[in-house]
Amino acid sequence: MSNLYWLSDDEWSRIEPLLPRGRRGAHRVDDHRVISGIVHMLRSGARWRDCPPEYGPYTTIYNRFNRWSRQGIWYEIFEALTGTTGMIGTVAVDSSYIKAHRSAAGGKGGPPTRLLAAQEAGAPPKSTP
Fold first, then answer.
1. Which range of residues forms the domain containing residue 47?
2. Which end of the chain, C or N, has fewer beta carbons within 10 A?
3. Domain count, the chain
């Protein structure tokens, strides 16, 4: 457990007022434990499924991160923890591609790379009936 990340009391006091309140539905599990788990997973870069069990079920950790990401809550939490939102700028990634047949690199077509012996000799082209 020594390599796990836990929010300090100072960090917790800074982010606790930013947490959403009054949500209907099932009782929410311990925010301190879940947020510590989320920060641990973001710092480690591991899969959500590999979340240590001390933080609770990995599905809870992931679902809370995902839901709060869509609501924009993490920007405020990261700013309270680090002094910055972590956003540097906007980036666009183009993932367009053209499908090619698996043998397209060595397929037929295009200009011939080698002339036939008759063409090199200057003979008129012949055709087969």
1. 9-15+28-82
2. C
3. 1
The CA distances from residue 37 to 30, 41, 51, in Å, are 11, 6, 7
pTM metric for this prediction: 0.59
In a domain, 46, yes or no: yes
The tokens for 75 are 């920007």
The per-residue pLDDT for range 4-30, each reduced to its tens digit, is 888 888 888 888 888 888 777 667 778
Question: Residue 52: inside a domain, yes or no?
Answer: yes
Residue 122 located in a structural domain = no
Max CA-CA distance within the chain? 92
What's the full length of the chain, in residues? 129
DSSP 51: -
CA–CA gap between residue 92 and residue 71 (Å, rounded): 21
Q: Please check whether residue 47 is in contact with residue 78, taking contact to mean a CB–CB distance below 8 angstroms.
A: no
Name the residue with higher pLDDT: 57 or 80. 57
H runs (alpha helix) in 27-72: 31-44, 58-71
